[in-house]
Amino acid sequence: MTYPLLDQIKQAGDVKRLALRDLPALCAEVRNFLIESVSATGGHLSSNLGVVELTVALHRALDLPRDKILFDVGHQCYTHKLLTGRRAGFAGLRGKDGLSGFPSPKESPCDTFIAGHGSTALSTAIGVAQAKKIKGEPGKVVAIIGDGAFTGGMVYEGMNNVGMLNNLIVILNDNKMSISKNVGEMANYLTKLRTDPKYFHAKAHMETVLERIPVVGSGVVRALQGGKQLIRRGIYHSTMFEEMGFQYIGPVDGHNVLELTRLFVNLKEQFAPVFLHVVTQKGKGLKPAEDNPGEFHSVSALDLDHLTNPEMSPRDSFSTCFGTTLAELGGKEKRLCAITAAMKYGTGLNFFKKAHPDRFFDVGMAEEHAVTFAAGLASQGLLPVVAIYSTFFQRAYDQMIHDVWLMQLDVLFAVDRAGLVPGDGETHQGIYDPGYFSQIGIRTYSPANYAELVHWLKKLAGPGQGPRAIRYPRGEETPALAALGCSGQPFDCIQPHTGARVALVSYGAESEEILAARDLLAQNGLTADCYKLVQICPIPEGLCEALCAYDTILFAEEAVRNGGIGEQLAFRLQQAGWRGRFLLHAVDNTHLLHANVPQLRRDQKLDAASLTQSVLQNRKAVEE
Length: 624
Hints:
This protein is α/β, with parallel strands linked by helices and 624 residues long.
């Protein structure tokens, strides 16, 4: 497919060189490129197809990087990356040494801020806009916030602090409402009127003149403003935004690139923070994505000639195993409830929703609320299960402590995408939860295969257990770990060897690497035993006693070193009087990549070859 207009975009600002009449055709090219490119590499698809015209119009009107654009959530930035000269990088999107799937200041000065989580852009934008004011710098700050992100409370905390930042524009990207229902001729007319610079000048001049009238002037202004609010309440239902200090504009057709361009050009002159309500269609341009935008939110590579509806949780995955098992348990235990934060498909809870819709709750991008809501359910005798990605559970740390742990409530945390995660890079790695769950004291289990996940989920779903967590990786179980089955024990020594002096220890998906390292060590004439943990917090009873029999212990985990399970085990062994060599391989979070899991393991020296080399070098040093 050819892209004659897109071929002319080499760097930020090049879109301004095109004729205005060419913008609709450019949008069509961008949309076709995204479908073609993302279908080959995988990535966030439907959200990016919905913001093409909006992004093109912003780039046409703004001057980047002087003006700033912040995306919420950041996965809707693909068009922005194309228009800032990064088209070649899409061939390696979300791959090692390739283009990030989120804004990245490391890639371009046009990327203002990393934005892998939701509901944060407004607070950041207010900070950036305020900094411009303090430093006397020109330029606009624009925050594009998806309607999903408006379910997170941090947005409203930010809205309450916009002050009089007349360099701030907040765009609500609303893709849940019908354009025909909300954008009629009257709304279009009022929008054109209220975004005309002549309107701004006339409004400001009239209020200044009236306020100078002795005694009654300010009262007249207040009366006029009150009357306008009554009218707007009837037309726009928008007084919440205006009472927080915004000038509300909209709804606006988010796919009319020419009208959006005119609007943004006019908004270069504003006298208050602007709240612009833009209505878009998620997945626009790809019929299956238009019909099922949630299922095309993030996709693997697609065959465009044989297109089916992909789901975030494929048929064979830990997420699907969890979801189907929980749905089954929900049929037997009527107190069981399932909660997620805008990730029904990603966590596999779509199965629970279908089977038990009255006990399924999607609270939106509000992880803090999800955990405290679960605490409320548990306080009344129900059995809530909160299923959230590891990286997003971090946002509810305080709620875990204060609202669940202190009262020892029956809340089960189901931690999806635990460990190293492919594609999404530094923002989505599930490497912190072992540390923060164990720091609080929450019992935590990390199954390595489906059999263990099913066994321990059934045990943990029952009442009277207090706070507990079960964590599992993204994707499918591997044949090597599936072959181990499930012993039902908190830890296993896999095929022990008499006289072995080296122990390799791990948990979860990383267990595959210690099994492979054991075989590599055997090829080098060194016998080693493998210990695979399922219970990682607290350290299982009997584990330290068993490990004290070895001279060298290597512990490998897909979690951060500081405060991780490896450090905790090393301390326990020291307290038990063990004086051998402890080799710890864990994640260095100072250089996280976006890559596939084998590449991430090699980079972090968590692959079998690196583990083997570590043991051999240590044994050589001891012998010398």
